[in-house]
Write a structure and sequence with these properties.
Order of helices and strands: HHH
Largest sheet: none
Oligomer: single chain
Number of helices: 3
Strand content: under 5%
Shape: globular
Distance between the termini: 47 Å
Length: 96
């Protein structure tokens, strides 16, 4: 399987996801940053506007892989990012 990386605008990524018959999935990198501690990881994840990409209430599934990383415990990374995302998205949920 060949992986390709391209830089496109968000609308083009959505169209590719809908229209490509050759891809079984499209991964979209929406943010990239360096974190040297779990605290800085959580702060950065909490400050990102996830609501632009994920509707509040959507089940989150996060896959973490690390290579030569200070934050080597992938479950701890997953937990921090998932909690930060859920907290940020809860601020945008529709109140009844």
């Amino acid at each position: 399987m060949r992986k390709r990386e391209v830089s496109v605008r968000l609308q083009a990524a959505y169209l590719a996801n809908l229209c490509l018959r050759t891809a079984n999935r499209i991964l979209l990198r929406v943010h990239e940053f360096r974190a040297t501690s779990y605290r800085s990881l959580a702060q950065e994840a909490a400050s990102f506007p996830w609501e632009l990409f994920i509707a509040p209430g959507t089940p989150l599934r996060i896959h973490v892989t690390t290579h030569h990383c200070r934050l080597h415990h992938s479950d701890a990374i997953t937990e921090r990012v998932q909690n930060a995302m859920a907290e940020r998205l809860s601020q945008f949920s529709v109140m009844d």
